[in-house]
Design brief:
The complex is a heterodimer of chains A (154) and B (509). Chain A is mainly alpha-helical. Chain A is built from five helices and no strands. In chain B, a hairpin with a 4-residue loop joins strand 1 (179-181) and strand 2. In chain B, helix 8 crosses helix 20 (431-458). The chains are: A mainly alpha (154), B mainly alpha (509).
Chain lengths: 154, 509
Amino acid sequence: MSDLPRTQHIVASGLIAAVGIGVAYISYTSEPARAFLFPRIISTVFVVLALWTFGKAVLGKTKVGIGLSAEALRNILPGLVVALVYVFWAAQALGFYTASGIAFFLLLSLYDPAPHDAVRTWVKRIIVTAGFVAVMYCLFALLLNVYTPREIFL
Amino acid sequence: MEFLAYMGDVFTPINFGLLLIGTIGGLILGATPGLSPTMAVALLIPFTFRLDATQGLVLLGAAYTSTVAGGAVSAILLKIPGAPANIATTLDGHTMAKKGEGARALQLSFVASAIGGVFGVMLLIFLTPVLAKWALAFGPSHLFWLAILGVTVIGTLDSSSVVKGLLAGCIGLWLSTIGFDDIMGAQRFIFHSSVSGGINVIPALIGLFAIPQVISMFLKGRREREAEVLAVRRHPIMEAIREVFRRSRALTIGTLTGSFIGLIPGVGGQIAGLVAYDQSRRMSPESRKFGTGHSEGVIAAESANNAMVGPSLVPLLTLSIPGSPTAAVLLGGLLIHGIFPGSDLFENYPEVAWTFINSMLIGQILMCVFGLLVAGLAARVAQVPNAVMAAVVLGLAVFGSYSVQNSMGDVYVMMALGTGMFFLERFGLSAAPLVLGLILGPIAEANFIQGKMIANATSSTGAYFFTGVLNLTLIGLVVASVAYSVWMEIRQRRYTTKEDAIVRGETLT
C-alpha cells in the first residue's frame, strides 16, 4: 500500500471513529436515558468497529478501499461542486427547472468529450439540455403534479 | 393455487400497461452500464406515488426483473456488464458476439433468463405463503434478532471486509434513530432541521444508490466510452429456444443455483451468475469450450441471475426482512403506501401481494419477448455519454427526493448521504449494509423496546432475548454469518499471501 492511501485511510477512519465517539457520547449522556437505550447499544458496537478500523489504518494493514488519487479528485471536483451548489443553493434560489437546466448544461460542458471549440457541440448541448428540462417538466409538473418551490421558470 | 385467483388483475389495462413500461424501461436501464437494478428501482419509486400500491409494485417489480436481464445486452455487445449480476455473461457472451453470433447470444440469454426467472417466481409463489404462516410464530425478540441477522448477513456477505460491512450496518442503524422518538417523546441526534422528522427512507435510498454512481461517472473525466457496439446479425429465435432446451444441464444448474442463492439474504445475482457458470463448466463434458464463446456459459449465467430474482423477495414478503438492497428498495415502495410486508401481508392485502407476484411471472415472459426486440436500441442507449447519464441521474435524484414530501430537507439529506457514501465506498464501506441498517433499524428498535417491556413483566431481559429455540437459532445464524465471512476473509488473505509469494519467487511450504 502506498503512503497516500494509508494517510487517506487514517483520516477517513479517524473521522468515522470521531463520529462514532460523538454518537456514543450523546447516547450515554442525553436524557431521557430510556429513549437512548437502543442508540447506546448501536453506538457501542459502532465505536468498537470504528476504532478497530482506525487501528488497522494506523498500522497500515487496511486491505479494502482504494482511496482517491489526485487525478480522481481533480476529475470529480468540478462536477461535485456544480452538484452541491445546485442542490444546496440553486434549486431553491433559482427554481428547480432553471437550476436543473443550468446544472445539466454545466455538467455536460464539463464532462462531454466533444471538442469545446466546435459550434455544433454547443448547439447540441443546448438542445439536449432543453430536452432534459422539458422531459423533467412533463414528468414531474404535469404527470406527478409536483409543486416545486418557485414553479416553472424560476 | 390462490395466486391463480388474482392472475386476471395483472391484465387490467393500467396494470398491464405499467408492466410493459417497467419491462421495456428496465431493459433499457439495465443495459446502461452504471445504472444498477437497485438504483433503477430507487429512481422509479417517486413515479409510484400517484399509483395505488398494486400498480406501484407492478412497475417496480417489472423494472427489477428486466434490469437484471437487460444488463446482458451491454455485457454481450459491449463487454460491459450492465449490472454486477451480468459479469459471468460477458465471459462467453461477448466472445460469441465477436464471432458474429451476437443475436444468438442475446436470444439464448433472454430465453434462459425467462426460464430461470419463471422457475424463481414459482418458488416465490409456493414458498412465500408457507413461510408467512410459519412467521406468525415470531415474537418481538425473534423479530429483533431477525433484523440484526438481516444487517449482519448483508454486512458480512455483501462486503469485502467483515468489519467495514458491519461498521456500515451500524452507521445505518444509527441513522435510523435520528429524529423524534415517539415512545419516549425525545429528540435524538437532531443536528439540522432537515432531519427533525427523521431520515425518510426513499430520499436516503435514492441518495445512497444514485449519487455515488453520479460521482463515479465524474471520476472518469472527459473520456469517451471506449466500448464499441458489435453488429448483430439475424438469427432464428426457434433455433435459440431449441438450443436452450438442448443445453438442459447448464439451464438446470443455472436455474437451481440461482434459486438457491436467491433465498440466502445478502448473496446477490453476481454470485449466482458466477457460481452457476463455474458449476456448469465443471460438470460439462465441453468444459474446455467455456470462455471461448460457448453457449452453455451464457445459458448458465443468465438463467441463474434471473432465477435469483423471485427467491430474493421471499424474506421480504414473509418476514419483512429485505434480503437484498433491491428488496430493501421495494420495501420502501411498499411502506409509502402504508403496507408493511410480513406474516399478515397475504391475509390483509392478498390482491396486492398476489398481483405483484403474478406480474413478475408475466413480466419474465414479456422481458424475453421485448428483450429480443429492443436489444439493439438498448445497446445504443448503453453508449449514451457519461456526462449526459450523470446529469440525468442527478436531476432525477433531486426531483425524485423532493417529490416524496415536497421538502427541500429530503433533497439535502439525499445529497449529503449520497456524497458521504461515495467517499465511504472509496474506503471500503458499501451502501447495501448501510441501507439495510437504515431500514431494519426501526424494526429492530421497536421490537427491542417491546421485548424489553414483556421481559420486565415476565422474566429478565437476558432470558427473554437469549433463551428459546428460535432465539438461539437466530443468534446462531448471526454468529455463523459473521464467523463464515471472517473465515473466508482469512482464507482469501492466505491465498493472496501465497500469490504474493509466487510473484516474489519464494518457495511455498
